[in-house]
């Protein structure tokens, strides 16, 4: 395996650099991000050329239009990367923040301090826009980063990582703080995932099969961003107008995102007044409705839902609709088919709302608002690397804080334990 | 595999119970812990009988005295369990705590709320005292729990889990909130570790090989409590008397614990004044010293250290001693041989202290205090399930808070995203 040495060398280099990266002042990190923004704009022709090489090669392999679109960089998309660098540079630096502090009766002063995690590996598909976005969030949080993008984006990624390295060099930061591992195919990924001493955290970004592959072979902790099968539940005591507006927004405003609602649950007591109104609005927007038998009886436009429609992430203008007999049945349905991402209740009944918010075990639970708000920016947390569907370490929008850990710093005057 | 069905049934049962356990009020949980304390005292003869059966069986298999000691329950040890139940019941309940709250410009009120993790599996060796201790911490934090103890403690564990179930029943809580998986040998553990839908977190408690086995086969997140190779570094500008007292305490006060210091690093400028004083005190206490060549030249009582003595967790009255040329060399040594547990600097030089505290990447870093303080109780965090040497989710003493996660609860008035 000729790539083995090379991968190991890069990982060791990144681990070594992480000590320096972790101690950088916020000014130096921000400066570096500003330089990167400038370089992305200056070198746009070279970036687009590299991307052209990837596209030419991929076009011969018969990938889907959606795949080719994700692989494509345009001047607008590169400009967006540059803007992201500036935005991330303007975010507060979480590193060094004192999370908690206490002075013990024996005089020991104990501080819980936010510190970088160390080395983070990002494993992703052939989406060169992820390269810059993931790298800058990791670096801003004081982490060194190892990137492993899909092989089809190799030329683009190599160019982008070279620019990030140049930005680090220009601001006198070790360029070894970021490395791209392009070699070695799947075997290299599984080799990387065994290096518990060299990598502290793995974040796979991509579809379910990529995440499952990583989870299956990793001995390094993984934070998972699985799909979002989000539900909106319209309770018996919902405000009808609000229920229609919020559900419509949750489905239609941007259906391709993980926080879009995929299933609508409706209490039977409100179904006959709510569903016809809702269906009319959905139909006008071209939303395909797949309903349970009760829904189909109330909504002639709906097709019968198959069992597989519950729990499906359509990412499209399709919605599954089910009439339930009770709040309990709605909660049960979400527990069975949901993905612990984002789920909403629409109701004027505060007892029902509070039961839903307590019992639905998802990263984000909403009362009278659209599931589309699950987003670091919308929550006021700044940029995010993804939405965690895990319960360990980070849940929901994963921003700069979630890319850090903490340490206890204890200040004494010679205390000993008796 | 006849155990397969049985294990799966218990895991499903626990998962189902976790919804109820997660919503229990602190009064109900505390009540249950008080009842358990009473039952442990009342049923002491039965517990000791069950333990006797384990001991009889184990005594035929030629286990080490240390192993037999860990397997043994005595009236004092059972009483300690009962006291632990009362102590944990008196700790504040982390569940429901609002960690962070914001109101967005659009009126959305976003709360980050502490919630239980769900189902926690504890995998441990043949130490029946862990059974009660681990179970009560998980339950108090609102989690359902699956226990898998070493097979040699099977009778004791079965009896103890039966008592915990009885305490739950007596206080009208589902007894399915705790289950013991005793069947199926190693294959059952590896089967359990694949059930990502049924278990949210795995905490292995025991030696390195147990932890490594779990990490190797688990698809469920694991928080690791690896060994503690702790260092005390006596800087050039240390107060001599304090350095001797603190180092002595860190090594001698309880050498069998993970937070005891295993290696002493000494700056060369202070070595000739400090080491003879230190060696005298160590020798008087029967501490075996294994030194680098410079140490051996200064301390006639020291034996030469082997390369394997650096990074060794002696858990005994043995200390490795090395003279270093600089603070940087000390930090380098800790980074190479340490286990990211607890490390201390003794110095009057605040710049040196601050560099050490920043650069040493351990869960707990000390200035002028004994490493022996790394403990949930000593930090004022209450009881702990262990000391995490991981950087993800929980670091250092892992108490009730670290057995929880959070969710975002969003209160709206019909907000939609534009």
Q: Please identify the oligomeric state.
A: homodimer
Under CATH at level 1, the class of the largest domain in chain A stands as: Alpha Beta
List the uncertain runs of chain A.
Answer: none
Largest interface: A-B, 67 and 67 residues
Count of helical stretches of chain A = 14
Q: Which secondary-structure class do the elements of chain A indicate? A: alpha/beta
Instruction: Give the count of structural domains of chain A.
Output: 2
> How do the strands of the widest beta sheet of chain A line up side by side?
10-9-11-8-7-12-13
CATH architecture type of the largest domain in chain A = 3-Layer(aba) Sandwich
Mean pLDDT of chain A: 96
Shape label of chain A: globular
Number of strands of chain A: 16
Rg value of chain A:
24 Å
The level of helicity of chain A is: 40-55%
The CATH homologous superfamily name of the largest domain in chain A equals Aldehyde Dehydrogenase, Chain A, domain 1
Main sheet record of chain A: 7 strands, parallel
Q: What is the beta-strand fraction of chain A? A: 15-25%
CATH topology grouping of the largest domain in chain A? Aldehyde Dehydrogenase, Chain A, domain 1
| Secondary-structure element series of chain A | HHHHHEEEHEHEHEHEHEHEHEEHEHEEEE
Query: What is the rounded distance between the termini of chain A?
Result: 55 Å
């Amino acid at each position: 395996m000729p790539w083995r040495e090379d991968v190991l060398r890069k990982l060791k280099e990144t681990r070594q650099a992480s000590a320096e990266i972790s101690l950088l002042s916020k000014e130096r990190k921000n400066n570096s991000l500003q330089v990167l923004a400038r370089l992305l704009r200056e070198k746009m022709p070279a970036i687009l050329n590299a991307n052209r090489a990837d596209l030419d090669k991929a076009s011969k392999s018969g990938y889907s239009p959606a795949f080719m679109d994700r692989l494509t960089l345009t001047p607008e998309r590169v400009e967006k990367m540059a803007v992201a660098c500036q935005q991330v540079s303007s975010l507060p630096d979480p590193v060094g923040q004192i999370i908690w502090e206490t002075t013990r009766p024996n005089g020991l002063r104990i501080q819980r301090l936010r510190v970088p995690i160390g080395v983070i590996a990002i494993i992703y598909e052939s989406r060169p826009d992820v390269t810059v976005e993931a790298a800058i969030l990791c670096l801003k949080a004081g982490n060194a980063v190892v990137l492993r993008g899909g092989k089809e984006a190799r030329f683009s990624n190599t160019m982008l990582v070279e620019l990030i390295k140049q930005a680090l060099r220009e601001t006198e930061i070790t360029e070894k703080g970021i490395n791209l591992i392009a070699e070695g195919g799947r075997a290299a990924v599984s080799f990387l995932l065994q290096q518990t001493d060299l990598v502290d955290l793995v974040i796979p970004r991509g579809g379910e099969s990529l995440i499952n592959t990583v989870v299956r072979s990793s001995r390094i902790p993984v934070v998972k961003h699985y799909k979002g099968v989000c539900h909106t539940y319209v309770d018996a005591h919902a405000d009808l107008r609000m229920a229609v507006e919020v559900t419509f927004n949750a489905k239609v405003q941007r259906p391709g995102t993980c926080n879009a609602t995929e299933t609508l649950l409706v209490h039977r007591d409100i179904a006959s007044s709510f569903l016809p109104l809702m269906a009319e609005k959905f139909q006008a927007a071209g939303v395909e409705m797949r309903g349970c038998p009760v829904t189909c009886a109330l909504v002639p436009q709906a097709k019968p839902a198959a069992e597989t429609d519950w729990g499906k992430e359509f990412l499209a203008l399709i919605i599954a609709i089910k009439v339930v007999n009770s709040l309990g049945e709605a909660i049960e349905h979400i527990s069975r088919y949901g993905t612990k991402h984002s789920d909403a209740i629409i109701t004027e009944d505060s007892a029902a709302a509070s039961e839903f918010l307590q019992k639905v075990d998802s990263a984000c639970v909403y009362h009278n608002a659209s599931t589309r708000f699950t987003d670091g920016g919308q929550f006021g947390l700044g940029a995010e690397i993804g939405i965690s569907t895990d319960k360990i370490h980070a849940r929901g929008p994963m921003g700069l804080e979630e890319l850090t850990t903490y340490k206890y710093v204890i200040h004494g005057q010679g205390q000993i334990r008796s």
